[in-house]
Design brief:
125 residues; mainly alpha; 6 helices
Length: 125
């Protein structure tokens, strides 16, 4: 349902007040998207998972309680990772991976599977 002229005017006044009172916040809000926020959360959850794994390996022989806590950290990070991947969805994931390919990451890593299959393919007579 489109906004009425009155609602559009009120909305633009609120937006102008936000730009006048806090221009840094207005810029940050306009630049941040769901994809960027979810991708940042995914990066942090992967880092937390790796940290939990290292902690698990370091403490499994000395303290079962600490190892269980490290496993809990890993599990929590996986839940955060899964929920953010769902937020991004398939279209957003393709958008992010397409941007990575444009920067050259996909060119060096993306063809590894194809090259591996070609190398080990059987030549049937």
């Amino acid at each position: 349902m489109p906004l009425s002229e009155d609602e559009q005017r009120i909305l633009s006044e609120i937006e102008q007040q936000l730009h006048d009172t806090d221009p840094d916040l207005a810029q940050q809000v306009s630049e941040t998207t769901l994809y960027k926020h979810a991708a940042r959360s995914i990066k942090w959850s992967i880092a937390g998972f790796v940290l939990g794994f290292v902690l698990l390996i370091a403490t499994v022989s000395t303290s079962t309680l600490l190892a269980l806590g490290a496993f809990g950290i890993m599990l929590a990070c996986l839940f955060v990772l899964e929920s953010n991947v769902r937020k991004i969805g398939k279209a957003g994931l393709q958008n992010l991976t397409g941007a990575m390919r444009g920067r050259g990451i996909g060119g060096s890593v993306g063809n590894v599977g194809r090259r591996w299959r070609e190398r080990w393919r059987r030549d049937d007579p």
